[in-house]
Specification:
two-stranded antiparallel sheet, 4 strands, mainly alpha, globular, ABC transporter involved in vitamin B12 uptake, BtuC, 2% strand, 76% helix
Length: 343
């Protein structure tokens, strides 16, 4: 009996020390705060705490979720991608151009869009591995390139020859972006599946272990015979393709390829990943925490809409959380270095 109690106590202690547990508590605290706040503002307890609010929160997470997964995988592998949102917007514009300007089937447009995104991701990886560009600089340059390409493709989809948003009508892309299965938005189902698949990939497979080791200790990864160049290519292409998936969903929801698409989403994805426990220094983190981190950010955004508070606080809150996540990660890295050095 004593051993069972000790085992149970040990499990509870390990659970409460896990970062995801802290994030869940923060999420629940946000729910309580906005439930009480909406009672004061709207005069009832159900202004925030209702099923439709959860549905709206999950729906609002979809576009950024793919950016978060891609950014999270790269951060774990010790890299960062600042071109992801721009590449995603470019992919969305290719989809709109394919349907409206080139009269291609919707699924062909999606394939072409993701292939172009993969190509730009491969260029990112080449800049980092072959030419030794810092990922920050190389992907920042790619961001400008992708935006320029997006404007070029937007001009192809109209008769005036000038860059503009491209609106189109397609029942299949509309269902992809706005449809539902058994009352659950299709995009939310796909988002959850992506988090589960990538969560298993990072935490339960040999490839995930290689990514962790490469990000946490590149020297050990090299000595262990891990092909860091190949994995870096995979991670950057994956990041770009997931950016393209985000762009496809955004374009499908709006039935429009927009020039300003995803402009505010790039750092939200990185913030959610880091808030969820993925280390900026690489080698640590998982998709479960990233999901809860994104859930917290979007709960705050929906909450301030319901209580009719100033929208500018959303950007302030996001910036503060990024600073908190970076600070926590910095001290965690310092503790790890002291442990390794024995000081």
């Amino acid at each position: 009996m004593t051993k069972k109690k000790e085992g149970g106590g040990s499990f509870i202690r390990s659970l409460t020390r896990h970062k995801v547990f802290t994030l869940v508590l923060l999420f629940l605290a946000l729910v309580l705060v906005f439930t009480g706040w909406s009672r004061l503002v709207n005069g009832n307890w159900t202004g925030f705490f209702k099923t439709s609010t959860l549905r709206n929160v999950l729906n609002s997470m979809v576009i950024t979720s793919f950016l978060t997964i891609g950014a999270g995988c790269l951060l774990i592998g010790g890299h960062i991608d600042l071109s992801q949102a721009a590449i995603g917007a470019f992919g969305g514009m290719i989809l709109a151009t394919s349907i409206k300007g080139w009269s291609l089937p919707w699924f062909v447009g999606i394939i072409i869009a993701l292939l172009f995104c993969a190509l730009l991701g491969a260029i990112n990886a080449t800049l980092v591995t072959r030419f030794n560009f810092p990922a920050f600089i190389g992907t920042l340059a790619m961001s400008s390139m992708a935006k320029g390409l997006m404007y070029m493709f937007s001009a192809m989809g109209v008769t005036t020859g000038k860059a503009s948003n491209i609106a189109f009508t397609n029942k299949y892309t509309d269902f992809l972006g706005n449809g539902a299965l058994v009352g659950i938005p299709l995009s939310v189902i796909i988002m959850v599946l992506f988090f589960i698949v990538y969560g298993i990939l990072i935490s339960k497979t040999k490839f995930g272990m290689k990514v962790m080791l490469m990000g946490g200790n590149p020297v050990s990864a090299h000595l262990a015979g891990i092909n860091s160049t190949r994995i870096t290519y995979i991670l950057f292409i994956n990041s770009a393709v997931l950016g393209g998936v985000s762009g496809v969903f955004n374009t499908s929801r709006l039935s429009q390829g927009a020039l300003l698409a995803l402009q505010t989403n790039q750092f939200t994805g990185i913030t959610a990943a880091m808030l969820g426990g993925i280390s900026f220094g690489g080698g640590a983190g998982g998709m479960g925490g990233a999901f809860v981190g994104l859930l917290i950010l979007n709960t705050f955004t929906i909450g301030i809409n319901i209580v009719k508070f100033d929208q500018f606080w959303k950007n302030v809150f996001t910036g503060v959380l990024l600073l908190v996540a970076l600070t926590i990660d910095y001290f965690a890295q310092m503790r790890l270095r002291r442990t390794v050095s024995g000081k």
